[in-house]
């Protein structure tokens, strides 16, 4: 069969068109993108995606608390150095390896000498011997705390303590520090008793004389230019009274000399050494030369008998005297104020004295001895007046030589009480004498 030319041409065009459509379909199929599902991360393989898993490394520590959430070996980094504690040989980064560090997770501590759970840096008593480190010559040795001769060997271990001055007992006060008990205490202890007591003086006078209370002066002179006498007025506190010594050495600024009290109560300063002119003004200070106190000396402070009406003043002066000695020695005793005849319970003087003593006892604690009560309790039951005195809470007549001062028996009680107190605290070397 023969087809016409026009039919064959049309058939050819149709074929070309059909091939074009097929080619176009193949191109579109080739351009199609196959979308595959995203990869799901599960670090610990527990079936929970990491984004839903609260413990990605399955170490038992929640990711929010885990410094290394994808490392099951470690979870904490105390010193933030990037190395977990399980792998770090210095967890707190203090330079002390953990095996030698008593506090491996505390950079502020590394040692605990007394094993009390407190690091030595925070512990105020590193050897737990009852002596604060600030007062302990051997803060890491519980068997030692003092080295009186500074040879590096503690006193408990040192067979020979060189350079130790013989202990002395300073009696600081008024006429209640009578020679009878001072002599008896010296006999009992074997130590010298240094008398620093002046009869009739108030606590203010005693504190001023000892250098514990400031002594202000007034003067018409403008300056001390060299050796010689300067007239002075002491308006208030006076270290010299009509009892005891009439002179005392000391300083006014850099001028050294002697302060004198005349019989009429006036004062003058006799300058002996003046290196530079000293300007005087109202309110200048006179500073007495103090006794040289050693650390094993003992101070007995007995003040207040002559100003019993001034509770606060007596307490303040006793405290000033205590601190004066406490700079060098811790061996300090404060005695209570005694009351005598006509100063029985119910009187104003009795009320004042017992008030002073309550304050002294509270302030000085173990350093305080209530000798007033010791005397009252030692009354003679065979003496009617002593029984009355006991009942009226005053020093028994059997122990007094006059209205206030003690007799031999009363002074014996004071000496024995002081001796026993000193011995019990290890301040003396001999056994108590019966």
Structure description:
With about 425 residues, this protein is an alpha/beta fold. Among the domains are: about 35 residues, no CATH class; about 190 residues, Rossmann fold (3-Layer(aba) Sandwich); about 80 residues. It contains 8 helices and 13 strands. Strands 3-10-6-7-8-5 form a 6-stranded antiparallel beta sheet, with no helix packed on it. Strands 2-1-11-12-13 form a 5-stranded parallel beta sheet, sandwiched between helices. Strands 4-9 form a two-stranded antiparallel ribbon. Helix 3 runs parallel beside helix 4. The longest helix has 27 residues. The chain is elongated, with a radius of gyration of 45 Å. The mean pLDDT is about 85.
CATH superfamily of the domain at 168-210 and 291-434: SGNH hydrolase
Low-pLDDT stretches are none
Strand order of the largest sheet: 3-10-6-7-8-5
CATH class of the domain at 168-210 and 291-434: Alpha Beta
Q: Which structural category fits the helices and strands?
A: alpha/beta
Helix content: 25-40%
Q: Give the name of the CATH architecture of the domain at 168-210 and 291-434.
A: 3-Layer(aba) Sandwich
The average pLDDT score comes to 83
Supply the number of helical segments. 8
Spatial extent as radius of gyration? 45 Å
Major sheet: 6 strands, antiparallel
Give me the strand/helix succession: HEHEHEEEEEEEEEHEHEHHH
Per CATH, what is the topology of the domain at 168-210 and 291-434?
Rossmann fold
Distance between the termini: 164 Å
Q: Choose one word for the global shape.
A: elongated
Strand content: 5-15%
Number of strands: 13
């Amino acid at each position: 069969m023969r087809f016409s030319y026009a039919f064959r041409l049309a058939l050819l065009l149709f074929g070309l068109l059909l091939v074009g459509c097929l080619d176009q379909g193949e191109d579109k199929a080739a351009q199609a993108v196959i979308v595959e599902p995203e990869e799901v991360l599960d670090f610990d393989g527990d079936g929970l995606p990491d984004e839903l898993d609260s413990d990605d490394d399955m170490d038992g520590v929640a990711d929010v608390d885990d410094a290394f959430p994808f490392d099951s070996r470690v979870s904490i980094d105390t010193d933030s150095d990037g190395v977990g504690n399980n792998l770090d040989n210095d967890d707190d980064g203090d330079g002390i390896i953990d095996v030698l560090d008593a506090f491996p997770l505390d950079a502020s501590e590394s040692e605990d000498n007394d094993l009390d759970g407190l690091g030595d840096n925070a512990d105020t008593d590193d050897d737990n011997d009852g002596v604060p480190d600030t007062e302990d010559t051997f803060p890491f040795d519980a068997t030692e705390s003092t080295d009186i001769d500074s040879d590096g060997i503690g006193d408990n271990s040192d067979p020979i303590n060189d350079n130790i001055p013989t202990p002395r007992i300073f009696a600081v006060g008024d006429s209640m520090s009578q020679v009878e008990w001072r002599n008896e205490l010296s006999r009992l202890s074997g130590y010298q008793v240094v008398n620093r007591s002046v009869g009739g003086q108030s606590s203010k006078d005693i504190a001023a004389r000892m250098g514990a209370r400031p002594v202000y002066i007034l003067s018409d002179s403008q300056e001390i230019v060299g050796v010689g006498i300067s007239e002075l007025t002491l308006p208030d506190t006076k270290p010299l009274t009509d009892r005891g010594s009439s002179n005392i050495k000391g300083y006014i600024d850099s001028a050294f000399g002697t302060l004198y009290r005349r019989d009429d109560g006036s004062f003058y300063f006799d300058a002996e050494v003046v290196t530079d002119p000293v300007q005087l003004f109202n309110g200048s200070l006179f500073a007495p030369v103090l006794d040289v106190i050693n650390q094993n000396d003992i101070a007995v402070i007995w003040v207040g008998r002559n100003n019993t009406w001034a509770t606060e003043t007596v307490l303040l002066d006793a405290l000033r005297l205590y601190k004066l000695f406490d700079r060098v020695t811790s061996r300090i005793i404060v005695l209570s104020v005694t009351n005598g005849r006509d100063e029985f319970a119910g009187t104003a003087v009795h009320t004042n004295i017992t008030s002073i003593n309550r304050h002294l006892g509270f302030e000085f604690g173990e350093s305080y001895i209530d000798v007033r009560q010791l005397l009252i309790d030692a009354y003679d039951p065979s003496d009617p007046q002593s029984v009355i005195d006991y009942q009226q809470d005053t020093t028994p007549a059997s122990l007094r030589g006059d209205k206030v001062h003690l007799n031999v028996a009363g002074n014996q009680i004071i000496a024995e009480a002081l001796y026993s107190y000193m011995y019990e605290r290890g301040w003396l070397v001999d056994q108590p004498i019966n």
